[in-house]
């Protein structure tokens, strides 16, 4: 939203620029003997009431093989699960079995495993579901359907390794 302010100025005919259109107005002024009032609208960026931008998390997705392309996405902090962000950006999360047999984000299949290479502190703590499924896995592994990206206030970069169980 943009703030606008109005101001009014009264001009005498001699102060008006001498264009063809306002010569007529000048004549009208002389005949009516009333001041001409002109209003100006100005946009003031300092007084703009636009809400501040929400913090964002930058995401980088590494493939399981060294030569795989690196995909990127931006997410509003604390707004979505990692699984949803990957789905919204059409980024592959599952291996072949998981594509067919995943639980749809319910936390009951354990097929949405990712490794957080960097930016773990920008995510929620491991949930009870993750503690159960990832008990014997490295600390950096998460279930994408249980991982909230950001906490609404933080911002930064998270690097995600897809299919860490396939990493070479
Ligand atoms: S999608 Fe099933 S546990 Fe994450």
Please describe the structure with a list of short key phrases separated by commas or semicolons.
disordered N terminus; metal ion binding; two-stranded antiparallel ribbon; 2Fe-2S ferredoxin-type domain-containing protein; 2 iron, 2 sulfur cluster binding; 4 helices; 2 domains; Adrenodoxin-like; about 25% strand; binds FE2/S2 (inorganic) cluster
Radius of gyration based on Cα positions: 30 Å
Please give the CATH architecture of the largest domain.
Roll
Output the CATH homologous superfamily of the largest domain. Beta-grasp domain
Give the count of helical stretches: 4
What is CATH's topology name of the largest domain? Answer: Ubiquitin-like (UB roll)
Supply the number of structural domains.
2
Low-confidence stretches: 1-30
Beta-strand proportion: 25-35%
Strand order, main sheet: write it out.
Answer: 4-3-7-5-6
User: What small molecules does the structure contain?
Assistant: FE2/S2 (inorganic) cluster
Termini gap: 51 Å
Described by strand count, sense and barrel closure, the largest sheet is:
5 strands, mixed
Overall pLDDT: 82
Order of helices and strands: EHEEEHHEHEE
Kindly state the percentage of residues in helix: 10-25%
Number of strands: 7
Structural class: alpha+beta
CATH class of the largest domain: Alpha Beta
Shape: globular
């Amino acid at each position: 939203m943009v703030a606008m302010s109005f101001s009014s100025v009264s001009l005498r005919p001699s102060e008006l620029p001498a264009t063809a259109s306002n010569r007529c107005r000048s004549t009208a002024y002389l005949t009516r003997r009333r001041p001409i009032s002109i209003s100006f609208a100005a946009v003031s960026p300092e007084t703009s009431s636009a809400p501040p931008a929400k913090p964002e998390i930058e995401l980088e997705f590494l493939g399981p093989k060294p030569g795989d392309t690196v995909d990127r996405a931006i997410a509003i902090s604390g707004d979505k699960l990692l699984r949803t962000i990957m789905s919204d950006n059409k980024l592959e999360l599952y291996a072949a079995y998981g594509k067919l047999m995943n639980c749809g984000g319910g936390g009951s299949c354990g097929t949405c495993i990712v490794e957080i290479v960097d930016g773990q502190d920008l995510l929620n703590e491991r949930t009870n579901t993750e503690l159960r499924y990832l008990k014997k896995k490295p600390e950096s592994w998460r279930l994408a359907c249980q991982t909230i990206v950001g906490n609404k206030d933080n911002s930064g970069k998270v690097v995600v390794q897809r299919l860490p169980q396939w990493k070479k």
